[in-house]
Amino acid sequence: MKKIILSMVFVFASFTMINANTSIEKVKSSKLKVEIIMQTCEEEALDIGAAADFAGYSDEAIFKLMNVGYALCMGYSYDDILM
Amino acid sequence: MKKILFYLLLVFGLTNINSQNKDIYGIVYYKYKPNYNQLNKDTIEIKKHVKDFFKKINKFSDDVQFKLEFLNRVSVFKIDEKMENDFNSNSTAFVQSIVSNGSYYCDLENDIQYRRIEEAGNKLLIQSRPSEIKWLLTGETKVINNFKCYKAISKLINVNNSGVHKFTIIAWYTPEIPVSFGPKQYNGLPGLILELKDTHNTFFANKIELFPKEKIRIKPFKGDTISEKNYKKKLRRMMKGVFIQNKN
């Protein structure tokens, strides 16, 4: 009986340790994904700004277009950005 | 003789009072469409995601309209709030911010104009003078909504990171409606503007209500003021920082 309990505890502990490692990996991978998204959105916003710049938009309009482009890329709504 | 003089003065006085009570007021609704030159396709290669972005925001022109309210020599131009509903509340906020660059209050009598914007949650009034816009009146005419309209031209210059950009602003105004107002900051013509080709968008009057049942009341804008010149300087400094950071 004691052996059965001990082996169950051992299995349970091992399972928990494996899960903990996987959770850490998942957090690292999610953080990396967010960083990649942010970098991508920054580049997208700069592309929008460059196009608006060449088309002769005012600084004010370029600034707003870039903000909107970045925020939409990051998943925000227009209300979040502009209200 | 004295009696004749008295009655003449009385008639003149009454006529004067009556004419002073004849306020000119009304509402004009404008729709808009992006211009062909919205993105300068001839000089740079436009990335697909940029084209998609502008295509998406241009669709807002279907949902949104602007309202110009005027009372004698004072007017307010802004987004038409009644158009706002759950479906297009996003588009009205965006269009007010990007297409019209805010709301406008114009007082032709005192030659004062304010453009109201939201900055960091506060209302900021950017001050300018309606008389700063110089119009060249031409004899060219066309009919818009059964009104004979005349063409007027002005110039606008935008200075940004890529250099100096000159735009020709074209307004079609009708002297048949003798109010000197139009969309955004474009006022001062000898008639109401029914069509205006701005830098990147063209505005069209699609409904005019003269002397509506409910008389127009216009309140001056309130907020912190800054001149147009100083505001542009402030933005120029910010934008230079953005592009320098990008190069690094």
Explain this structure.
- The complex is a heterodimer of chains A (83) and B (248).
- Chain A is mainly alpha-helical and 83 residues long.
- Chain A has one domain (2-82).
- Chain A has helices spanning 2-54, 59-73, 78-82.
- The longest helix of chain A has 53 residues, at 2-54.
- The mean pLDDT of chain A is 79.
- Chain B has 248 residues and is an alpha+beta fold.
- Chain B is 25% helix and 39% strand.
- Chain B has four helices and twelve strands, in the order αβαββαβββββββββα.
- Chain B has a twelve-stranded mixed β-sheet with strand order 7-8-9-10-11-1-2-3-4-5-6-12.
- The longest helix of chain B is centred in the N-terminal third of the chain and has 20 residues, at 2-21.
- Mean pLDDT of chain B is 84; it is low at 9-20 and 244-248.
- The interface between A and B is medium-sized, with 30 and 38 residues.
Uncertain stretches of chain B: 9-20, 244-248
Helical fraction of chain B: 10-25%
Distinct helical segment count of chain A? 3
**How would you spell out the order of helices and strands of chain B?**
HEHEEHEEEEEEEEEH
List keywords for this structure.
heterodimer; A: 83 residues; mainly alpha; 3 helices; 0% strand; B: 248 residues; alpha+beta; twelve-stranded mixed sheet; 12 strands; 25% helix; 39% strand; disordered C terminus
